[in-house]
Amino acid sequence: MNNPAPRETILSLFSQTPDGFVSGEHISAELGISRTAVWKHIRTLRQSGYVIEAIPSRGYQLLQSPDVLKPESIQADLECRRVGSRVRCFDETDSTNLQACRLGDEGEVDGLVVIADRQSSGKGRMGRRWESPAGVNLYASILLRPAILPFEAPKLTFLSAVAVCRAITHCTGLQPTVKWPNDILLDGAKVAGLLNEMSSETDQVHYVVLGIGVNLNMRVEQFPADLRYPATSLAIATGKIVSRLLFTRALLQEIDALYQTYLEEGSAPIMSAWAELCDLKGKAVQVDCNQLKIEGIMVGLAEDGALLVQTVTGKVENIYAGDVRPA
Ligand code: BTN
């Protein structure tokens, strides 16, 4: 991650302390600036809508963030080469993936980011619905135009997964894990989901859309009662509100850096970063592939991104779609 701007560092310090208090002295030491300069940054943050209380002998406490996702605040000093060069924010849309595909068909650029405060038809995997209430989470789609063959595109899911995990760790200190093919978990509960889509012809990808939904500040009562899996949010896991703006910026910077790696070195470094985040390797798993259930030991990933499961017969199955769970 590149060096964030001073005010971003201050905001991330708030989310890293156990009691939410950060002393002016600590900020000044972290940033290498004077206490007066710290105070000026706090004043600017207050002017941009952050409610920050100062308690003598304890320090500053962030009580509320403005947290409106706007292109200007997302793009301000963003250290990205491609991702975020264009940002479109909607108060409401059907699905950011659908929007990004429409914009892709109209010729929008590599690196376009589409964000919505709320989705009326948020899309999950396998035709499922992605719960998308307003004001609490991140619903983002990133349009990429890599010069790759269509069979390569599914591997970009691993890129989004690693980027989401790194952004979560950067903003909260938590260590998420990944579940093949596109879930991000905290202590076994789903905190983010990924849905990549693409437009292509036989030998050419027109564009890939990385769809990313992260449960940032969703409360327990906002999850649907009939969820198929245990779910959580960063706020539930940490007991603190996470800045949507800060998280979005961190995520875009991570995606941009990994995309650069992908273009320069291919998918291998990204797939090994994904494998490091996967805690099911070597464990017994059960995979639901439509009507078929496969049980065995997860032995790793194939070069093309397929899940490798060794069954009792000793045969290693290459699985391309399905729901995995610990057996
Ligand atoms: C899953 O089922 O786990 C995938 C969920 C993907 C949800 C995100 S939210 C942003 C983007 N727009 C959509 O309609 N879906 C993806």
Note down, in words, how this protein is organized.
Helices cover 31% and strands 29% of the residues. The protein is of the alpha+beta class and 327 residues long. A 7-stranded mixed sheet has the order 4-5-6-10-9-8-7, sandwiched between helices. Strand 12 (292-301) and strand 13 (307-310) form a beta hairpin. Helix 6 packs across helix 8 (244-265). The relative contact order is 0.12. The model has no long low-confidence stretch (mean pLDDT 93). Biotin binds next to helix 5, strand 6, strand 9 and strand 10.
Topology, please?
Elements: H1 6-16, E1 21-22, H2 24-31, H3 35-47, E2 51-55, E3 59-64, H4 71-75, E4 87-93, H5 96-105, E5 112-119, E6 138-144, H6 156-172, E7 177-179, E8 183-186, E9 189-201, E10 204-214, H7 234-238, H8 244-265, H9 268-276, E11 284-289, E12 292-301, E13 307-310, E14 316-319, E15 323-326
Parallel strand pairs: 4-5
Antiparallel strand pairs: 1-3, 2-3, 5-6, 6-10, 7-8, 8-9, 9-10, 11-12, 11-15, 12-13, 13-14
Helix pairs in contact: 2-3, 6-8, 6-9
This protein binds biotin.
